[in-house]
Amino acid sequence: MQSARKPSHGFTAIELLIVVVVLGVLAAIAYPSYQEQIGKARRNDAKTALMGLASALERYAVEHNSSYAGATIGSGAGSIFPNEAPLDGTTKYYDLAIVAADLSANTYTITAAPKGAQASDQCGTLTVDHLGQKSASGSGTCW
Questions:
Q1: What percent of the chain has pLDDT over 70?
Q2: By C-alpha distance, which of 5, 40, 9, 15 is closest to 122?
Protein backbone atom coordinates (compact mmCIF):
# COMPACT_ATOMS: atom_id res chain seq x y z
CA MET A 1 0.00 0.00 0.00
CA GLN A 2 1.31 3.44 -0.98
CA SER A 3 1.18 6.33 1.36
CA ALA A 4 -0.50 9.44 0.08
CA ARG A 5 1.79 12.47 0.04
CA LYS A 6 0.56 15.97 0.11
CA PRO A 7 2.04 18.19 -2.60
CA SER A 8 4.40 20.79 -1.13
CA HIS A 9 3.70 24.47 -1.63
CA GLY A 10 6.72 26.76 -1.42
CA PHE A 11 10.46 26.77 -1.89
CA THR A 12 13.20 24.90 -0.13
CA ALA A 13 16.00 26.72 1.65
CA ILE A 14 18.45 25.59 -1.04
CA GLU A 15 16.31 27.07 -3.83
CA LEU A 16 16.06 30.39 -1.99
CA LEU A 17 19.81 30.41 -1.35
CA ILE A 18 20.55 29.84 -5.04
CA VAL A 19 18.27 32.73 -6.04
CA VAL A 20 19.95 35.06 -3.51
CA VAL A 21 23.43 34.10 -4.77
CA VAL A 22 22.45 34.64 -8.41
CA LEU A 23 20.94 38.04 -7.60
CA GLY A 24 24.07 38.99 -5.67
CA VAL A 25 26.33 38.10 -8.59
CA LEU A 26 24.14 40.05 -11.02
CA ALA A 27 24.14 43.09 -8.74
CA ALA A 28 27.93 42.93 -8.32
CA ILE A 29 28.34 42.99 -12.09
CA ALA A 30 25.63 45.55 -12.88
CA TYR A 31 26.30 48.22 -10.22
CA PRO A 32 29.76 49.29 -11.46
CA SER A 33 28.41 49.54 -15.01
CA TYR A 34 25.52 51.64 -13.76
CA GLN A 35 27.91 53.97 -11.91
CA GLU A 36 30.07 54.31 -15.02
CA GLN A 37 27.05 55.27 -17.13
CA ILE A 38 25.98 57.87 -14.56
CA GLY A 39 29.49 59.38 -14.70
CA LYS A 40 29.39 59.49 -18.51
CA ALA A 41 26.01 61.24 -18.44
CA ARG A 42 27.32 63.87 -16.01
CA ARG A 43 30.43 64.35 -18.17
CA ASN A 44 28.22 64.83 -21.24
CA ASP A 45 26.30 67.53 -19.36
CA ALA A 46 29.60 69.29 -18.65
CA LYS A 47 30.69 69.03 -22.29
CA THR A 48 27.37 70.48 -23.40
CA ALA A 49 27.74 73.33 -20.91
CA LEU A 50 31.29 74.03 -22.14
CA MET A 51 30.09 74.26 -25.72
CA GLY A 52 27.26 76.55 -24.59
CA LEU A 53 29.81 78.75 -22.80
CA ALA A 54 31.96 78.85 -25.94
CA SER A 55 28.91 80.00 -27.90
CA ALA A 56 28.17 82.65 -25.27
CA LEU A 57 31.76 83.90 -25.55
CA GLU A 58 31.43 84.14 -29.32
CA ARG A 59 28.20 86.16 -28.92
CA TYR A 60 30.00 88.37 -26.39
CA ALA A 61 32.83 88.99 -28.88
CA VAL A 62 30.36 89.96 -31.60
CA GLU A 63 28.74 92.49 -29.25
CA HIS A 64 32.11 93.87 -28.04
CA ASN A 65 34.09 94.61 -31.20
CA SER A 66 35.50 91.10 -31.66
CA SER A 67 36.97 90.95 -28.15
CA TYR A 68 36.54 88.30 -25.46
CA ALA A 69 38.15 90.58 -22.85
CA GLY A 70 35.87 91.41 -19.94
CA ALA A 71 33.57 88.40 -20.28
CA THR A 72 32.49 86.92 -16.94
CA ILE A 73 30.45 83.93 -15.88
CA GLY A 74 28.42 83.23 -12.76
CA SER A 75 25.11 84.41 -11.38
CA GLY A 76 25.89 88.12 -11.07
CA ALA A 77 24.77 90.97 -13.27
CA GLY A 78 26.70 91.10 -16.52
CA SER A 79 27.54 87.41 -16.47
CA ILE A 80 27.20 85.76 -19.84
CA PHE A 81 26.73 82.17 -18.63
CA PRO A 82 26.27 80.13 -15.41
CA ASN A 83 29.43 78.84 -13.71
CA GLU A 84 28.22 75.32 -12.81
CA ALA A 85 27.02 72.29 -14.73
CA PRO A 86 24.62 70.75 -15.36
CA LEU A 87 22.65 73.87 -16.16
CA ASP A 88 19.38 72.33 -14.99
CA GLY A 89 18.69 70.44 -11.79
CA THR A 90 19.89 71.18 -8.31
CA THR A 91 23.02 69.04 -7.84
CA LYS A 92 26.04 70.44 -9.70
CA TYR A 93 28.93 68.17 -10.67
CA TYR A 94 31.25 70.56 -12.55
CA ASP A 95 32.57 74.07 -12.00
CA LEU A 96 32.87 76.07 -15.20
CA ALA A 97 35.58 78.71 -15.47
CA ILE A 98 37.25 81.06 -17.90
CA VAL A 99 41.02 80.76 -17.43
CA ALA A 100 41.97 84.36 -16.60
CA ALA A 101 45.50 84.09 -18.05
CA ASP A 102 44.09 83.04 -21.43
CA LEU A 103 41.29 85.62 -21.68
CA SER A 104 42.22 88.40 -24.07
CA ALA A 105 40.77 90.22 -27.03
CA ASN A 106 41.56 87.26 -29.31
CA THR A 107 41.80 84.16 -27.10
CA TYR A 108 40.10 82.25 -24.32
CA THR A 109 40.33 78.91 -22.56
CA ILE A 110 37.38 77.53 -20.62
CA THR A 111 37.33 74.59 -18.24
CA ALA A 112 34.90 72.26 -16.49
CA ALA A 113 36.42 70.90 -13.27
CA PRO A 114 34.65 67.91 -11.66
CA LYS A 115 33.43 68.23 -8.08
CA GLY A 116 31.33 66.35 -5.54
CA ALA A 117 30.34 62.85 -6.62
CA GLN A 118 32.06 63.43 -9.97
CA ALA A 119 35.43 64.47 -8.42
CA SER A 120 37.01 61.06 -9.05
CA ASP A 121 36.12 61.11 -12.77
CA GLN A 122 38.92 59.55 -14.81
CA CYS A 123 38.80 62.39 -17.35
CA GLY A 124 39.57 65.12 -14.83
CA THR A 125 39.15 68.72 -15.97
CA LEU A 126 37.72 69.24 -19.46
CA THR A 127 39.08 72.15 -21.51
CA VAL A 128 38.08 74.03 -24.69
CA ASP A 129 39.92 76.96 -26.25
CA HIS A 130 39.03 79.71 -28.72
CA LEU A 131 40.05 77.47 -31.63
CA GLY A 132 37.64 74.74 -30.53
CA GLN A 133 40.46 72.44 -29.41
CA LYS A 134 39.27 70.06 -26.70
CA SER A 135 41.35 68.29 -24.09
CA ALA A 136 41.13 66.62 -20.69
CA SER A 137 43.60 66.48 -17.81
CA GLY A 138 42.84 62.82 -17.10
CA SER A 139 42.94 59.64 -19.10
CA GLY A 140 40.56 57.71 -21.27
CA THR A 141 38.25 58.71 -24.08
CA CYS A 142 36.74 61.87 -22.72
CA TRP A 143 35.62 63.82 -25.77
A1: 97
A2: 40
